[in-house]
Amino acid sequence: GPFRIDVVTIFPEYLAPLRQSLLGKAIERGLVSVGVHDLRQWTDDVHRTVDDAPYGGGPGMVMKPEPWGQALDAVRPPGTRLVVPTPAGRPFTHAMAVEWAAEPGLVFACGRYEGIDQRVADWAAEAGPVSEVSIGDYVLAGGESAVLVMTEAVTRLIPGVLGNRESAEFDSHADGLLEGPSYTRPVTWRGHEVPPVLLSGNHAAIERWRRAESLRRTATRRPDLLAALPEDALTDADRAV
Ligand code: 6GU
């Protein structure tokens, strides 16, 4: 069946872009299915309360565990990965996107305020994998935009979602390096030229040049990625760049 994505949030309309563009096409074609759920449907009080003051004191509000328990009972099939976006999470990476895309689906729990009572993630881990993840070193108001980011990174790796023309195998990060620059017509634009090797017709020379540009760009912009490559990832020719 389709790759199943469920999102629980207090701002369901924020997830409308999930049905647009590449993911919208994948839904239409039956490759992906999406459910967006308002957490407040699992509250019991007239005020539909989802948050409360933190034990121990301090600023902000914490999301109460009871609505989350009922929400996950309703939408999370046992064994399905629960993803909790949080600035206090492990960094989300392309390698995680690859791993998650091979699973049957994902459930996202979007926190607001100062996050969700920690017992929700602790309890949820008894029924399947739980990933508390961050999309970068900055603070967002809530997890909803991070869910848009992660669902796009994951679903474009699902077989059939991308066409052959936009294949994922040569993307930045797929081999641990950044992609080098790309060019199209015209050959001269406002005094700037396309690198002549790309016009040479020499496919071996073009591949060597692209590899060198990829290495140079990664060394300049992301030296941490170069340092993290496995020992055998670089050839002698690579090291000469
Ligand atoms: Cl996943 N959530 C929030 N609220 N802030 C973030 C984040 C996630 N990743 C970076 N900052």
UniProtKB/TrEMBL annotation:
CDD domains: TrmD-like (cd18080). GO terms for molecular function: tRNA (guanine(37)-N1)-methyltransferase activity. It comes from the Bacteria. The keyword Transferase applies. Keywords: Cytoplasm, Methyltransferase, S-adenosyl-L-methionine, Transferase, tRNA processing. The keyword Methyltransferase applies. Its EC number is 2.1.1.228. Gene3D superfamilies: 3.40.1280.10, tRNA(m1g37)methyltransferase, domain 2. It is found in: Cytoplasm. GO terms for cellular component: cytosol. GO terms for biological process: tRNA N1-guanine methylation. S-adenosyl-L-methionine binds at G111, I135, G136, D137, Y138, V139, L140. Residues 4-226 form the tRNA methyltransferase TRMD/TRM10-type domain. It catalyses: guanosine(37) in tRNA + S-adenosyl-L-methionine = N(1)-methylguanosine(37) in tRNA + S-adenosyl-L-homocysteine + H(+). Homodimer. Specifically methylates guanosine-37 in various tRNAs. Belongs to the RNA methyltransferase TrmD family. PANTHER family: TRNA (GUANINE-N(1)-)-METHYLTRANSFERASE. This is tRNA (guanine-N(1)-)-methyltransferase. It comes from Blastococcus saxobsidens. The gene is trmD.
